[in-house]
Automatic annotation (TrEMBL):
Keywords: Merozoite. Residues 1-168 form the Merozoite surface 1 C-terminal domain. InterPro entries: MSP1_C. This is Merozoite surface protein 1-33.
Length: 230
């Protein structure tokens, strides 16, 4: 009994500690969206505030929520291992309980008054009834204990699966929004480069021999950087 209770204490403390850390981290991540809330009601100014984040913020949040997802997966594995342990121990205790019940039933079924060797053996066995009754109660307690611990883990697993789905939805959103922003950045850079080249400014400078090919690349890079900052 002490072994099962100790195992339950260890696994419960471990899972609770991870969950508290994860919830604290989620609160920190949620604070990133605070600028997009109405101060009066606390509601977001749009349905999906993740759209309002810049590219770097989205990337940062994406990595954080991927970490959250990995943490939930780790908890699911731990909890399922615990379930497997309780299932095995529960079945083992049931087998022992059934064996004890069978012995008690056999002893109590003996017919009093028979003067036979078999009856004498049963009378001898009756001396063990107090021990068997004690064992019966202990195994019943262990079976119930394993069942209770298993049910608690089952609830924890259900909550983890809900958390996992919610996290996956956020991760998918951030992945999509990040890709969109990255493509927009590529488009903007490509368009700016095209605009600078089409102006003919670099060609005029090169033709005037004021700058060479390598220097023209540096000028282009600087122009693009200035426009990006603007």
């Amino acid at each position: 009994e002490n072994h099962v209770a100790a195992f339950n204490t260890n696994i419960t403390d471990m899972l609770d500690s991870r969950l508290k850390k994860r919830n604290y981290f989620l609160d920190v991540l949620d604070s990133e969206l605070s600028p997009f809330k109405y101060s009066s009601s606390g509601e977001y100014i749009i349905k999906d505030p993740y759209k309002l984040l810049d590219l770097e913020q989205k990337k940062k949040l994406l990595g954080s929520y991927q970490y959250i997802g990995a943490s939930v997966d780790k908890d699911l594995i731990t909890a399922k291992d615990g379930m497997e342990y309780y299932n095995k121990m529960g079945e083992l205790y049931k087998q022992h309980l059934e064996a004890v019940n069978a012995q008690i039933k056999e002893i109590e079924a003996s017919v009093p008054g028979e003067q036979s060797q078999l009856n004498a053996q049963k009378e001898e066995l009756k001396k063990y009834l107090p021990f068997l009754n004690s064992s019966q109660k202990e195994y019943e307690s262990l079976v119930n204990m394993a069942h209770t611990y298993k049910e608690n883990l089952k609830k924890f697993i259900n909550n983890c699966q809900i958390e996992k789905k919610e996290t996956e939805i956020i991760v998918k959103k951030l992945e999509d929004y990040t890709k969109i922003d990255e493509n927009l950045e590529i488009y903007k850079k490509s368009k700016k480069e095209s605009d600078v080249r089409s102006s003919g400014l670099l060609e005029k400078l090169k033709n005037s021999k004021l700058i060479n090919e390598e220097e023209s690349k540096k000028v282009l890079s600087q122009l693009l950087n200035v426009q990006t900052q603007m």
